[in-house]
Every structure is written in structure tokens, then in C-alpha cells.
Design goal:
- The complex is a heterodimer of chains A (363) and B (196).
- By secondary structure, chain A is an alpha+beta fold.
- Chain A contains eleven helices and 14 strands.
- Chain A is globular.
- The two termini of chain A are 41 Å apart.
- Chain B has 196 residues and is mainly alpha-helical.
- Helices cover 72% and strands 0% of the residues of chain B.
- In chain B, α8 crosses α10 and α9 packs across α10.
- The longest helix of chain B has 21 residues.
- Classes of the chains: A alpha+beta (363), B mainly alpha (196).
Chain lengths: 363, 196
């Protein structure tokens, strides 16, 4: 059944039912509701402000340098700044994980925050994201849970980055200019003041992702997004289509680089397909899923290799026991990775996962 | 600005419709004054770009102008919502060749699509009517709150987070309720012989 059919059928719903829905919809637009939201924002902003004050004092305690020289180190003059950063490929590769350096904080008037992050672990990669409906970022050492607006963008130079943004028509020029103006060093993070006005660039298609990666020109182009995974899986109407897609990926990507969507698929009705995509700064990495059928149980063992230095090289994520009534406990680090459970080749969203009683445990 | 807008009298639906009937261009202005914010919020759920939303709303105003008269809607808001949904779909389709982030509505329809995947409704007009009839019967048996949730999510494309805020419950609870609804819907369709 086509979406358009459902859409049109919904247009024929009883008017009284629609008005009930509109009533609920308008509740979220009501000034009272907004006030509540606004109050929450104020709370978060206050917390953020306190944090900024504490952080701004922190380097003074740690070094012998005066506050002025510290500031210089954190905010290099713009002329040498751009020179220093236009060729980031020459900067030394990080060997360890450091907390992010905060270079600019704005008091955000909006719920949630929009940020740019230049991960040290993946140089020349710009991460654009927001904490979405979550709180503003109060601790720069902890990235917020990624949402559908979080994207990674590769760039070779500042110019290249701006070109990319402006070529992608949905990215306004002022935004690119803003980045130029505040262009930070790798490892820096910027919070943008105006979350609402930023239009997230268009979603790169999955095959473009693969090509961009393989070309060697980019570190990665990644989209952290439910939409992405939905887009990836929902487009497969049949198991065959899915397999075909998977094959094409297998051909186009080298063993170490390709997205591993490992699957175990039982043709019978209790068949279960566990798809795991892993999106880290350095690219999609290997994850292994083993499913063993025992008496009424499926044991799913998930192992992930994280390139992210903080997490080490190879780290088992979980031993998961999956009873036949589909109660699955998945443990992961809570920061990266999205786990999609697909039954009979059909995508099951998070809400379905919840409905199955699946809970996510974060260490 | 808020102070100014407080002093402007907002007309009720009947008065605005009257303006449409007398072919008074201020009908659009009054509609805009009363419903612009609401329509933008709905459009935002259906389309991802601000420009598209604005285009869609402008199309909606124009369509209202063209269709009233002869139509005399009982609720201007509902009538405008229905028109806006149609225009939003057109815009979405028109631009569907571009790479786009699916809108909230598309995401919600994905879930419903999955739920209805085995149903026997055809994709023609007849199938749409049958499905609408089935949905109306299904909704009739739900509580008012459940119906509102269904319509807000699938008709208006409201995000789960916004619904959760409106109801003052967790997003998890909304996810669960929606999921339960879809299970119920599926059971209902099977019972009524609509699903193979």
C-alpha cells in the first residue's frame, strides 16, 4: 500500500476526530506550554552560563600563563588562524583522546543547542549537530545524544568547506560565513546562537556516502540519523531488494571500510534480522552479530570495533539473550551506534523496539 | 510587536468566511492573522524546509480564496488544514527527486504503511475510501485521547516529542501508545477481513 493512499484516506477522516487531533496539536503551541519550555531553557542556559564561567577559569589554574596569554592560545589571531587551519592535514594526528576545547559559547535562547564540532580523532571532519529536543550542551566533554540533525561533513580546506555548504543550496551563505569567521582548530567546538535559523543540509544518499569515502578525498560523510537508517532500510520493499543493495555495498566498499550490515535471517516466521549500523567519525566500522538458536531462545552476541580512541580498539558490547517473545536487551556505550531490529526483512523503528519490550541499557 | 498584535481584533471563522464570500481581499489577511502560526506549525511537520513551508502556506491561502465560495466550510481551520496537507504533498513530491530529509509526516506514515502492508485496500480511490471508512470505524472505538493522538501523529504529522510535551508525558509513553494503537489497528483490520 502506498503512502499516498494512506495520506489521502486520512483526509477523509471524520471531521470531529480531526478537530480532536488539532486540539491536541494546538496544546503544544499554546503560550502556557511555550512558557514551560521557555522556563526549561532558562534553567539550562543558566547552567550553561555557570559552566562557561567555571571552564573559562580552568586554564588559569592549570598553567602558569596569564589569562591573556591563555586567551591567545584559545583564540588565535584571525590572520595566522586561517593560515594555520587551511591545511589541517599537516597537523599531527592525535594519539589520544582529549576533552574538547571550548572556544566559543553563546547563551542560547533556544531549547536544545546547535553545535559544530571538529573531532580531534577525525581531522578535517566537521560535525554539525544539535541536541535536538534534549537539553543544551552543558558539558563539552560529553556530546549530546545524536539526533536526526547531526551530520558529519568532510572538508579539505576552509574554502572547500564553504564551497560545499553553499553548493548545497539549503545551507545559507551566512552560515558558511559564520563558520569561516569562527573557524576553529581541530578539536574545537562552536555553539551556534541561532538554532532555528539553521537549515540542515540535504541528506546525502547512501551510495554517495560510499563513493565519497572510497575516493580518499574525504575522511567521511556521515549522517547520524534515524532518517538515514530509515532511508536506508525503508527503501527495500523485499528481502531481495535488500540483499541486492547489500551486495552492491559489498562490492563498492573495501572490507575494512564498508558498512557492515550483518544479518541473520531465518526464512521461517520467527526469522529475525538484526541490522546494526555504526557511524563513527572514522567511518562505518565492523560489528558482528551472531545468532544461535537454542531452546526457545536466540542468543545475539554483538561485538563492535570502535575506532574512537576513548573506547579502545575492540570492545564487546553485549551478550544478549533474545527469548522467543522478543525481549531483547541491548547494551552499548550509549553514545554511538544505532541498533535496528528488523523482523522478516521489514524495518522496525525504535518505537517498535520499545513495543517489543526492548530496552537500551547504558553503562 | 506582541503588544501591538494584542490590540488587533481577531475575527471569528464566520466573519472571515463572510469576507471570502464578499470577495474582500482582507479575508486572506484575517486568515493569516488568525492561523498563520498554526498553519506554519502544521506545515513544518509535513515539510522540512522553511521556504517550502512558506510556499505551501501561500498556496493554501490562494486555494482558500479560490474555493470559498462555493465551499462554505464549517471550520475554516480544518478546511485550511486539509488544503495545506494537499499542497504540502504536492510540494514534497515535486521536490522528491532532490535529496531530502523525510518530514515528520513521512516518518509517521512509514509506521502506518508498515502496519497496513498486508491489507487488502487498493491504491485507487475506492481503496482510499474503504481505508478511510475502516479508520473511522476504528477511531470510533478509541477514547477521545487516543483518537487525538492518532490524528496528531498521522494526520498532522506532529512529532512524538511535541505530543509528549502537550500531554505532559514521556516520549517513551507516546511511542508505546502509538505502537499499541497500530497493533490494535492491525487486529481490527484482521477482524474486519481487511488483512490477508
Amino acid at each position: 500500500m502506498k503512502k499516498s493512499t494512506i495520506h489521502n484516506a486520512l483526509d477523509l477522516l471524520d471531521e470531529s476526530y480531526i478537530s480532536e487531533g488539532i486540539e491536541l496539536f494546538e496544546k503544544s503551541l499554546s503560550p502556557q506550554h511555550k512558557k514551560k519550555k521557555h522556563f526549561t531553557r532558562i534553567l539550562w542556559v543558566s547552567a550553561l552560563f555557570v559552566l562557561v564561567c567555571v571552564l573559562s577559569l580552568f586554564p588559569v589554574f592549570l598553567s602558569d600563563k596569564s589569562p591573556n596569554s591563555t586567551d591567545e592560545a584559545r583564540f588565535p589571531p584571525s590572520s595566522s588562524h586561517s593560515e594555520e587551519n587551511t591545511d589541517l592535514s599537516e597537523s599531527p594526528k592525535p594519539t589520544h583522546y582529549d576533552p574538547y576545547t571550548l572556544i566559543d559559547f553563546e547563551i542560547l535562547p533556544y531549547y536544545g543547542s546547535f553545535y559544530l564540532y571538529f573531532p580531534e580523532s577525525a581531522q578535517n571532519t566537521l560535525q554539525i549537530g544539535s541536541s535536538g529536543t534534549g537539553p543544551v550542551i552543558t558539558d563539552p566533554t560529553i556530546l549530546p545524544e545524536f539526533d536526526d540533525r547531526t551530520m558529519f561533513f568532510p572538508f579539505e580546506s576552509v574554502e572547500n568547506m564553504v564551497e560545499m555548504f553553499t553548493a548545497d543550496s539549503q545551507m545559507p551563505l551566512w552560515f558558511a560565513e559564520y563558520i569561516l569567521e569562527h573557524f576553529p582548530k581541530s578539536g574545537d567546538m562552536i555553539l551556534l546562537p541561532d538554532f532555528e535559523n539553521i537549515v540542515v543540509p540535504t541528506l546525502p544518499q547512501s551510495f554517495q556516502l560510499g563513493k565519497a569515502y572510497l575516493s580518499g578525498e574525504y575522511y567521511c560523510v556521515q549522517v547520524l540519523s534515524d532518517h538515514f537508517t530509515n532511508g536506508l532500510f525503508n527503501s527495500f520493499a523485499t528481502q531481495e531488494e535488500y540483499a541486492d543493495h547489500y551486495d552492491r555495498f559489498s562490492k563498492d566498499w573495501s572490507d575494512d571500510e564498508k558498512i557492515r550490515i550483518l544479518k541473520t535471517y531465518d526464512e521461517q516466521t520467527d526469522g529475525l534480522l538484526l541490522c546494526i549500523t555504526d557511524y563513527l567519525q572514522n567511518g562505518f566500522k565492523y560489528k558482528r552479530v551472531e545468532t544461535t538458536l537454542t531452546d526457545g531462545f536466540k542468543k545475539v552476541h554483538v561485538v563492535a570495533t570502535y575506532p574512537f580512541p576513548r573506547l579502545g580498539s575492540t570492545q564487546p558490547i553485549s551478550d544478549t539473550v533474545l527469548p522467543q517473545d522478543i525481549t531483547l536487551y541491548i547494551e552499548d556505550d550509549g553514545l554511538y551506534g544505532s541498533i535496528y531490529l528488523t523482523q522478516l526483512g521489514k524495518n522496525i523503528s525504535y518505537e517498535e523496539l520499545f513495543a517489543f519490550g526492548i530496552e537500551k541499557h547504558t553503562n | 510587536m506582541n503588544r501591538l498584535s494584542r490590540n488587533v481584533k481577531i475575527l471569528d471563522d464566520d466573519q472571515i468566511i463572510e469576507l471570502f464570500f464578499s470577495r474582500n481581499p482582507s479575508a486572506i489577511e484575517e486568515t493569516q492573522r488568525k492561523y498563520a502560526r498554526y498553519l506554519f506549525s502544521v506545515a513544518r511537520n509535513l515539510l522540512t524546509s522553511k521556504e517550502d513551508c512558506e510556499e505551501c502556506i501561500n498556496d493554501t491561502y490562494l486555494a482558500l480564496w479560490d474555493s470559498i465560495p462555493p465551499h462554505h466550510p464549517r471550520s475554516l481551520k480544518m478546511f485550511a488544514t486539509s488544503i495545506l496537507r494537499k499542497h504540502a504533498t504536492d510540494i514534497y513530491r515535486k521536490k522528491s527527486r532532490q535529496k531530502r530529509i523525510p518530514s515528520e509526516l513521512i516518518l509517521s506514515l512509514n509506521d502506518l504503511e508498515y502496519c497496513l502492508s498486508d491489507s487488502t485496500f487498493s491504491d485507487d480511490e475506492q481503496g482510499q475510501k474503504q481505508l478511510a471508512q475502516a479508520l473511522n470505524t476504528f477511531l470510533k472505538n478509541l477514547s477521545k485521547e487516543e483518537r487525538a493522538l492518532f490524528v496528531a501523529r498521522y494526520y498532522l504529522g506532529q512529532s512524538v516529542a511535541d505530543i509528549a510535551h502537550a500531554l505532559n508525558i514521556s516520549t517513551y509513553a507516546v511511542y508505546r501508545s502509538l505502537s499499541k494503537q497500530r497493533v490494535k489497528l492491525r487486529e481490527f483490520l484482521i477482524k474486519e477481513g481487511y488483512t490477508v
